[in-house]
Amino acid sequence: MLEYNEIKEGKVILYENEPYGVLTSHVFRKQQRKPVNQTKLKNLLTGRIAEVAFHVSEKVDEAEINSRAIKYLYKNKGEFWFCEENNPSKRFALKEEVVGASGKFLKENMTADLLTFVLNENTEPKIVSVRLPIKVDFKVTEAPPGIKGDTASGGGKPVTLETGAIITAPLFINAGDTVRVNTQTGEYTERV
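^ Elongation factor P C-terminal domain-containing protein, sequence as received from the core. Prediction below:
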């Protein structure tokens, strides 16, 4: 059980029998009243955002999210196909909505974590999302030439990665280079 002031960013709580990720939280006190924790929550199953205020007397359960390693195989007709890490014969598909924006950073044979949520022993596990490694190396397939003196825009240019994702990279990155990308933010971190 979490107290009202322990509900902070990064926590996953059970609210209305569904898992919610805490996006923001702010504990404040209005004049003579008791403190309140104003939070912004994201439903991990539906993606719905809700603003909820937790008062001093309220407590919530922390949601139990299970994780297991899976391997990405390929994408076909809006579905991402995966298999168990050690058993390629156990294949399954996930829709684009479940994988989310991180799908553009999936490479063939890449290992990721499948996050599932179980309310209790009697219910079937529900797939919450796929979590990629934080930093992944990609080969740059297309990069426009950097123009000398073009640093008014911060010295960046759009480059296309081997997965088809487009990110902003420094002017010195060329086609054929390997770059490391933060998959959570979609930002360039360094050249490898």
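The longest strand covers residues 65-76.
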